[in-house]
TrEMBL record:
CDD domains reported in the protein's UniProt record: XynE_like (cd01830)
Coiled coil regions, renumbered to chain: none
Signal sequence annotation: 1-25
Descriptive protein name: SGNH hydrolase-type esterase domain-containing protein
GO MF, any single term: hydrolase activity, acting on ester bonds
Keyword annotations of the record: Signal
Keyword Signal: yes
Top-rank lineage group of the source organism: Bacteria
Pfam families: Lipase_GDSL_2 (PF13472)
SGNH hydrolase-type esterase domain sequence ranges: 200-387
InterPro entries: GDSL_Rv0518-like, SGNH_hydro, SGNH_hydro_sf
Length: 399
């Protein structure tokens, strides 16, 4: 009897080790993101760099930390396969430098190419990162890329240098670039209570005109607020896309078209903050489309709510910011904005609302953005405006 008891005690740890769920179960949350878009035409202000046998180095700031990461690269909006060389991740220092000894090679399960129109997710990487820490991802492209999938606005500097310099503490002969190339997301393996808040929007969410390399976009500051409030395992994924619209394609696919990819498919998503609509309204002034009715925009919001709720995701709607004085403002468009905002603040279908319009408006003329928050075009906030927007979000809605 004693021998049987001893044998059972010896076997118990072995059985626990092989039973499903006995080991740590992965719970991924999206700690950083950039919405993929097709390559923009080269211009005098932003020519497409030569990427053949080049290392592309980019810095991202994680919203929440962990001991295990994975990287998602995107070739989803490119028509040709992309050959990959070495890819590394490291702790960032200033001006493209990395901390010596922190470099780790990223494994993609043996893959050496990303098929056309496909993403590529890395194997888990044992890499300890703190919340709000900057990490550097370096990608060697042996065959280059003529039209790589990118995120056109980055608010961050990238560096491009000849050859495979993915392990170098400092790139030699590097040129700077102002767009995100290939990197779509960084996920963190986190506790079961962890979750992701997605911010869906246009250039205002994307942070156009924010100070470069300073992480002052409203989702960046929201992530800082969550950390200070003790919500260390709540990640923020910025899926803003400059020029985006709800009903029709603008810069990139419309918000309804990308909602599955950029919201519902995000690992750990629990909430989405939606700030969209000003480009739908304003584009009518440029005769690129008809002025949408309030009913059409509200119906689109309702679609987002229905699709999100079907997946257990809560929707927080944000009022459309005032933009009187911007190049595409009209009285007719203003009437649509006010009607939509009134519905956002009174509807009982969404899970909450944030009155960003009121937070950033000029009290003496609420149809305009306050000068203290205006970058100068009456449409985009400055760093102070982004801070006010982030502070207007009641964190209780995200708990």
């Amino acid at each position: 009897m004693k021998r049987r008891t001893v044998n059972r005690l010896v076997l118990l740890p072995v059985l626990l080790a092989i039973l499903p769920g006995a080991a740590h179960a992965e719970r991924w949350v999206r700690s950083w993101a950039a919405a993929p878009q097709e390559a923009l035409p080269a211009s005098a202000n932003s020519p497409m760099p030569d990427l053949k046998d080049r290392t592309v180095r980019q810095v991202v700031r994680l919203s929440t930390g962990g001991d295990t990461l994975r990287i998602r690269l995107s070739n989803e909006l490119s028509a040709a396969p992309l050959q990959l060389g070495r890819v590394t991740i490291a702790i960032s220092e200033a001006d493209g430098r990395i901390v010596s000894g922190s470099v780790q090679t990223v494994d993609f399960g043996g893959a050496v190419a990303i098929p056309a129109h496909a993403p590529l997710v890395s194997a888990p990487i044992a890499f300890r990162a703190k919340p709000l820490q900057r990490v550097t991802i370096s990608i060697h492209l042996p065959e280059g890329a003529d039209a790589p999938t990118m995120h056109p606005y980055s608010a961050a500097t990238a560096w491009i240098a000849a050859g495979d310099q993915t392990g170098a503490a400092m790139l030699t002969g590097a040129a700077t670039y102002n767009r995100r190339l290939l990197i779509a997301a960084v996920d963190v393996d986190a506790p079961r209570t962890a979750r992701t808040v997605v911010t869906l929007g246009d250039s205002i969410t994307d942070g156009v005109r924010a100070t470069d390399n300073a992480d002052t976009r409203y989702p960046d500051i929201l992530a800082e607020r969550l950390q200070k409030a003790g919500l260390r395992n709540v990640a923020v994924a910025n899926l803003g896309l400059s020029g985006n619209r709800i009903l029709t394609d603008g810069a990139g696919p419309n918000a309804l078209a990308r909602f599955d990819r950029d919201v519902l498919a995000v690992p750990g998503v629990s909430h989405v903050l939606v700030l969209e609509g000003v480009n739908d309204i304003g584009s009518a002034a440029r005769a690129t489309q008809a002025l949408p009715t309030p009913a059409a925009l509200i119906a689109a919001y309702r679609q987002m709510i229905a699709r999100a709720h079907a997946e257990g995701v809560k929707v927080i709607l944000c009022t459309i910011l005032p933009y009187k004085g911007a190049g595409y403002w009209t009285p007719e468009g203003e009437a649509v904005r006010k009607a939509v905002n009134a519905w956002i603040l009174t509807n009982r279908e969404a899970d909450g609302a944030v009155d960003l319009a009121r937070a950033i408006a000029d009290p003496a003329d609420p149809d305009r953005m306050a000068k203290a928050y205006d970058v100068g075009d009456a449409l985009h906030p400055n760093d102070a405006g982004f801070k006010v927007m982030a502070e207007a979000v009641d964190l209780k809605m995200l708990r």
